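Page 37, continued from 36.
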């Protein structure tokens, strides 16, 4: 949020990976002003500094949440933007600010739009760590929000590789690019995949507190990676079962869960 601090931190950097954001959707209902300050103004601070410092590349991290519930699948970069939460609204605005700097000043910006990244070190607030940690704590009744929404889950190593490949390609400058597996799974089916791996006796209960407002729920996210495949050599390498296994193993380590 501090433009001077951001600019100072970026001095001497050739390539900027801008991943900083407030991401918790439920908290955005309560404190949208904080999301505006961090996600919109913070992005402005980064790209303004990049312009002034003449950085070689800037990768601005977007989110599949900007698309809202899919109007068509797989979701391409041309899909309409639908702000279904204050969080997604601020990310749409941040993307637009980044695009404006490319068009206005020629700042070498790419908007990178990962779908639902998961894996070791993910915040416990996200759905997969929520499922895993409840089960590891010995809870027999798993409390979740809506079970029917679908997500396109990208393992963190594949997301990282996508960012690297995008940064290496001049063809991606001025573009917004999805990172997606082009496969989807519902939250309920996801939980049923994880339960047998930790506590086969566990059942699922919908927790009303975890439900989004009806018009705010994003019911389907299934991304297209055709543009990324065309502009780089990227392809996802980690199947969902493998990624879940590695994630569970990481959370089983008690010191990781404490940290």
């Amino acid at each position: 949020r501090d433009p001077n601090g951001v600019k100072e931190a970026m001095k001497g950097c050739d390539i900027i990976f801008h991943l900083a954001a407030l991401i918790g959707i439920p908290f955005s209902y309560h404190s949208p002003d904080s999301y505006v300050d961090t996600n919109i103004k913070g992005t402005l601070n980064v790209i303004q500094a990049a312009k002034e410092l003449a950085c070689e590349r800037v990768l601005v991290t977007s989110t599949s949440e900007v698309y809202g519930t899919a109007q068509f699948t797989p979701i391409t970069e041309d899909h309409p933007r639908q702000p279904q939460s204050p969080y997604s609204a601020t990310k749409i605005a941040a993307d637009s600010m980044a695009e404006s700097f490319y068009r206005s000043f020629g700042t070498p910006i790419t908007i990178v739009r990962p779908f639902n990244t998961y894996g070791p070190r993910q915040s416990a607030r996200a759905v997969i760590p929520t499922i895993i940690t409840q089960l590891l704590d010995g809870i027999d009744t798993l409390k979740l929000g809506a079970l029917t929404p679908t997500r396109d889950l990208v393992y963190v190593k594949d997301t990282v590789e996508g960012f690297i490949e995008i940064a290496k390609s001049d063809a991606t400058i001025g573009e917004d690019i999805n990172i997606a597996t082009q496969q989807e799974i519902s939250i309920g089916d996801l939980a049923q995949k994880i339960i047998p791996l930790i506590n086969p006796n566990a059942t699922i209960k919908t927790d009303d507190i975890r439900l989004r407002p009806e018009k705010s729920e994003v019911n389907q996210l299934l991304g297209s990676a055709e543009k990324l495949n065309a502009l780089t050599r990227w392809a996802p390498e980690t199947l969902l079962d493998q990624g879940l296994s590695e994630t569970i193993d990481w959370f089983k380590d008690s010191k990781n869960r404490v940290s």
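DSSP finds ten helices and ten strands in the chain. Flag for discussion at group meeting. The radius of gyration is 19 Å.
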